[in-house]
Design a protein that fits this description.
heterodimer, A: 166 residues, Aconitase, domain 4, 7-stranded mixed sheet, 7 helices, 7 strands, 19% strand, globular, B: 424 residues, alpha/beta, Aconitase, domain 3, 2 domains, 5-stranded parallel sheet, 14 helices, 18 strands, 18% strand
Chain lengths: 166, 424
């Protein structure tokens, strides 16, 4: 994934503990076509999400985003719905790992005050290499939490298969 | 080092590791089911233009497969997925494969120890979040997604950040009518649904020693609901005997050091654990069963990797014997072997006499994927592990999580019932 330059899009904001059944309900786990999964992204929590979302948009969430199942369908559904990055106060471990190792999207950790300042519909720019978020709607700039070294390398490589260690 | 640290150190060829270290660990066992296997196959197809055709996998003898999520198939797509899994097994020479309608098969996590597929000291990964369950045998067991499992199948290793360990020392013994499920809910109430995120949960103490292997597996299973990377219990003689009766493979248990460091230690007294229930819509939203005695339910489900093991069925039968269920009740043994054992012990007859429906082993009901799907507004009490919105069906259905004893008592009365309060 090319991390030079900025990602730009609008915020879709949710609360704490957005679980994988909310991101993509279990009955769709037999679905193998990622575009069909994307048609049901966030259906469990926000049935209008797929109507609202535009390519390049961001999901902003509270703590423990993606808790629950190991289903890689969750980051895949968001990716094919157009989401490039999820900004959350924290991530459940398997969602985080799937997002990174599958090369699906960038999981970005933010502090509570950043979460509070980001509103649904805000236009933002995310510059991962500089570690900042620009809120174009509010004219503010925030820091994101540093991305661990190994995770950054895997993201840049485009996923675990493209990453060469040692 | 803790047992988790020692296993990861050994698997990554290091003398010592500490929490926070990133290691590349060699993997001993891999599991895929009928959702994960086709997902891994899809990853292999996507990677073709980048890394070429994957002609062989690292070690087919270290991989096992089961059909459990959408079995028997519910539609054309799930039937195709089973075919994909069959083709995968054939193409890559995977022989350990548990298929529906062909003898032993069922929920992967129960098979992992019931069939001694995972052994003490091993590093085990699978395409399911509740892979943690197998930590009951003193292995490092963690759930991964399709891409990660595909990577392991090609390279035989993957990366882990060595987790901090939370130690739960459970003294005393559980009282009659209190179970490992109630203890799990008590722990979730204490630490929350992200209380162990990225961490290891280790269970020890007299209450654990007194539990059979199925009950211990409920604890390691429910660790996923606290976000744990893995859960683990150090092997004891009871475990080793259990495994020896199921495998001829040599057992080489690993134990933590005397001076192992834990990031936190929780001391709990099992005697204080009452029958508990997790209310919608979080496994951490816990009350005592008695506080919820005015909640009426429409449906009861007893099954899954959490609550469909032989011990769970015995508990349910102890309540249902000689009684009739008042609300629709479905019971699904976790595996074919569990089903057979329940039949031998007369449990199936007790269930049928009480009016319950018995289903073939599947994960289906637990995740609203197959059989028993809840309609809008329906209320269910379930022995499963999750009650997120829409988990078992419609977004506006409600699931309460409880032990097999509490679920069975509730089936008899039609409202949430502490099994101690069941009269007659």
């Amino acid at each position: 994934m090319n991390l030079e330059g900025v990602l730009r899009g609008r915020v879709h904001k949710y609360g704490d503990n957005v679980d994988t059944d909310s991101i993509i309900p279990g009955r769709f786990l037999k679905e193998m076509d990622p575009k069909k999964l994307a048609e049901h992204a966030m259906e469990g929590i926000d049935p209008d999400f797929v109507k609202k979302v535009r390519p390049g948009d961001f999901v902003v969430a509270g703590k423990n985003f993606g808790c629950g199942s190991s289903r890689e369908h969750a980051p895949i559904a968001l990716r094919y719905a157009g989401i490039k990055a999820v900004l959350a106060k924290s991530f459940a471990r398997i969602f985080y790992r799937n997002a990174v190792d599958g090369g699906h999207l960038i999981p970005i950790e933010i502090d509570n005050n950043v979460y509070e300042r980001l509103s649904d519909g805000d236009e933002i720019e995310v510059d991962v290499s500089k570690g900042i978020v620009r809120n174009l709607t509010k004219g503010e700039v925030y820091n994101i939490r540093p991305i661990p070294e190994l995770v950054m390398k895997i993201i840049k490589a485009g996923g675990i298969f493209m990453f060469k260690h040692e | 080092m803790t047992i988790t640290e020692k296993i990861l150190a050994k698997a990554s060829g290091k003398r010592t590791v500490s929490p926070g270290d990133v290691v590349f660990a060699n993997i001993d066992k891999v599991m895929m089911h009928d959702v994960g296997g086709p997902g891994v196959w899809a990853v292999f197809q996507e990677l073709k233009p980048i890394i070429g055709e994957i002609e062989k996998i690292w070690d087919p003898d270290k991989v096992w497969l089961t059909e459990d999520h959408f079995v028997p198939p519910i539609d054309k797509q799930s039937a195709e997925n089973i075919k994909t899994l069959e083709d995968f097994a054939k193409r890559y020479g995977i022989r350990k494969y548990f298929r529906y309608g062909l003898g032993q098969y069922g929920v992967c996590h129960t098979l992992s120890y019931e069939e001694a597929l995972v052994l003490p000291g091993e590093v085990y990964v699978g395409t399911d979040s509740h892979t943690n369950t197998a930590g009951v045998v003193g292995a490092f067991a963690a759930g991964l997604g399709h891409t990660d499992i595909a990577y392991v199948l090609v390279h035989g290793k993957t990366w882990f950040r060595v987790p901090e360990t939370l130690l739960f020392r459970i003294s005393g013994e559980l009282q009659p009518y209190s179970t490992a499920k109630d203890l799990s809910l008590a722990i979730l109430h204490e630490i929350g649904t992200d209380g162990a995120n990225y961490k290891a949960m280790q269970f020890s103490g007299s209450a654990i020693k007194a539990m059979d292997i199925d009950e211990r597996a409920t604890l390691t299973n429910m660790s996923t609901e606290a976000g744990a990377k893995n859960a683990i219990i150090e092997p004891d003689e009871r475990l080793l005997q259990y495994l020896r009766s199921r495998t001829d493979s040599p057992l080489t248990p690993v134990y933590g050091d005397e001076d192992a460091e834990f990031s936190e230690v929780y001391d709990m007294d099992a005697r204080t654990i009452e029958p508990l229930v997790a209310k919608p819509y979080s496994p951490g939203n816990v009350s005592s069963a008695r506080e919820l005695s005015d909640v009426e339910v429409d449906r009861v489900y007893i099954g899954s990797c959490t609550g469909g093991k032989i011990t769970d069925l015995r508990m349910a039968a102890s309540v249902l014997k000689g009684r009739k269920v008042r609300v629709r009740t479905e019971i699904v043994p976790a595996t074919q072997r569990t089903y057979m054992q329940a039949l031998k012990e007369g449990l199936i007859e007790i269930f049928l006499q009480s009016g319950t429906l018995i289903g073939a082993p599947t994960c289906g009901l637990c995740f609203g994927g197959h059989m028993g799907v809840l309609r809008k507004g329906e209320v269910c009490i379930s022995t499963t592990n999750r009650n997120f919105p829409g988990r078992m069906g419609d977004r506006e259905s409600k699931t309460y999580l409880a032990s097999p004893l509490t679920a069975a008592a509730t089936a008899v009365t039609g409202r949430i019932t502490d099994p101690r309060d069941l009269s007659g």
